[in-house]
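Page 42, continued from yesterday. The earlier attempt failed because a stray header line got pasted into the input along with the sequence. Redoing it now with the clean sequence only.
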Amino acid sequence: MTGATDTPLGVVLAGGKSTRLGRDKAWLRFGDRPLLCQVAELLARVTGDILISGRDPSEFGLEAPWLPDVIDNMGPAGGVLTVLAATGRPCLILSCDLPFLDAATLDRLVAVWRRRPDWALMTTYRIRETGYIESLVAVYEPGGAALVRHSLAQGERRLSAIFPEQQRLHLDYSREDTALARAFFNINSPPDLERARGLEVPA
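This time it went through. Structure tokens are written below.
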């Protein structure tokens, strides 16, 4: 077992083009802040240090270091490669389109990550009934950078395929756990946004 008691670097992936949504999801507002700011502030409460991947956050009034993608148009995997290669640190990586994520869900993930075995390059939640993994709420190890680079060169951009099951540490949860499932709800399309508005808790 890896005797880690430290905390991963928090990373928000914000370099996507939001093609399916048709508008920049980072600027969507849930409450009084753009979604990128909401996710970044949540992550900072859990990890302390954060980094924005893919764009300069100063346009959002957010003071945080950032990195442009080292390879363009590679989706989230390109952002994962960028931050692992540049920082050499374990990174708790989130997409910027998670309006209902909460600190308790992230704290639980980090607690399991701290007890990870040496073979684990990715620590993430998994739906028990389907095997689906939450690859954009996950901790990635710096040793995974070479794996991502090789896979991208071979045309594979799906993080669930890049990191095979034998190199993933899972926190299983049931899709019947509606509160946890809500935490992972992300916005990729206009129907997703409409549904998210319906899930908002009135102020």
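Notes: The chain is about 35% helix and 20% strand.
Reminder to self: strip header lines before submitting.
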